[in-house]
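User: Can you help me understand a structure? I only have the sequence.
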Amino acid sequence: MKHGLVLEGGALRGLYSMGIVDVLMDEGIVFDGAVGVSAGAALGCNIKSGQVGRALRYNMRFAKDWRYCSVRSLFLTGDLYGAEYAYHKVPKEMDLFDIEAFNANGLPFWAVCTDVETGEAIYHLLDKANDETYEWIRASASMPLCSRIVEVGGHKLLDGGVADSIPLAFMESKGFERNLVILTQPNGYVKQPNRFLPLMKMSSLRHYPQFLQAVAQRHVMYNAELEFVRKREAEGRVLVFRPDTSLPIKHTSHDPKVMRRVYELGREQALLRLNEVKAFLTDDGR
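Assistant: Let's start by predicting it. Here is the structure, written out as tokens:
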């Protein structure tokens, strides 16, 4: 029986997820496959390179660097998170991404993106670390209105969460029968319609009606996926981590202390439930 890991997005709420993931890596817990959406891909790829603590470290280090993430970057480059600086210079020069470890690790890791021309999800297998892989990761995490469309692999792409926020069904379709799902919103959360949709309709995104339709329906999709997760959880086929309350961080933050606190909330929860995780991953459910 194959065991999978599903990482929801949520921008810097993803540091909560990485607190959990880092504990699992510390404990030598491995999966047969993983999928990440948006921040789940941008931060979660460190599980394939085996770099415990890296996601927190570089976010804290560059928290106040405008080239990494800032309104200034948005106005000057078109990207809130600097496309060249955050996704290329940092991993290649500033806080090295372990390319050799990533390439040597046989863990299948997919990044979810949304094709702006079709409004549908694209699941890209991140096999070898290179500039194109970094662009797929950037595409997965590129929030509408805060990012330029990313062109890679013959597609025009933005935030994977628009088309598939919690890709549990995708993992099941790949044969992963038991999955650990890490959510970044508390139990009882209900997503509301996107209040920025009118702005998107006035922006360059107006040329992509299928994408705008996906944005308009995202809350419906998301809430249905939450219900699917709950169903699988009740059946014992999914183990879910979710924060006890809304995480004390916004999509972006320039406060390293807040980042660390969110990360530590994940670590604390993972340590408390470590035996539960081990039992879930060793029990074949029969």
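Now, to help you interpret it: Residues 48 and 160 are 19 Å apart (CA to CA). The mean pLDDT is 97. Let me know which part you'd like to focus on.
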